[in-house]
Amino acid sequence: MEVRAIGRYIRISPFKAQKVAALIRGKPVKEAMNILMLTPKKGARIIKDVLQSAVANAENNYGLNRENLFVKIAQVDKGPTLKRIKPRARGRADLIRKRTSHITIVLDTAE
């Protein structure tokens, strides 16, 4: 049975978050949590929160055991970009793009 959790409008670049998501794809939940706790990136902390939410959904809503779950899909999609303007020399302006992400974690039971 598939269980999912989605984190929307997370303030991290999708490119940076995708690198961390690739580390846990296909791994058991316990191993994925250990990898995320030891990875020194901002994306690891954010993805760990979404993974914990997916595990809580599995346990509370479907009565599944944490030991039998593995990460089936760890996907990071592009969200809307916040655009800000930074003044520069000689009256010019630069556009600052603050990118957001939608993070989806799908868990499945190991057969």
UniProtKB/TrEMBL annotation:
Which GO CC terms are listed, alphabetically?
cytosolic large ribosomal subunit
> What GO biological process terms are annotated to this protein in UniProt?
translation
Q: What InterPro entries does this protein's entry cite?
A: Ribosomal_uL22, Ribosomal_uL22_bac/chlpt-type, Ribosomal_uL22_bac/org-type, Ribosomal_uL22_CS, Ribosomal_uL22_sf
GO MF, any single term:
structural constituent of ribosome
- Looking at the record's lineage, which domain of life comes first? Bacteria
Kindly indicate whether the keyword Ribosomal protein belongs to this entry: yes
The UniProt keywords, alphabetically, are: Ribonucleoprotein, Ribosomal protein, RNA-binding, rRNA-binding
The entry describes its oligomerization and partners as: Part of the 50S ribosomal subunit.
Function, in words: This protein binds specifically to 23S rRNA; its binding is stimulated by other ribosomal proteins, e.g., L4, L17, and L20. It is important during the early stages of 50S assembly. It makes multiple contacts with different domains of the 23S rRNA in the assembled 50S subunit and ribosome.
Family to which this protein belongs: Belongs to the universal ribosomal protein uL22 family.
This chain's protein is named Large ribosomal subunit protein uL22
- What is the native source organism of this protein? Aerophobetes bacterium
Gene name of the encoded protein: rplV
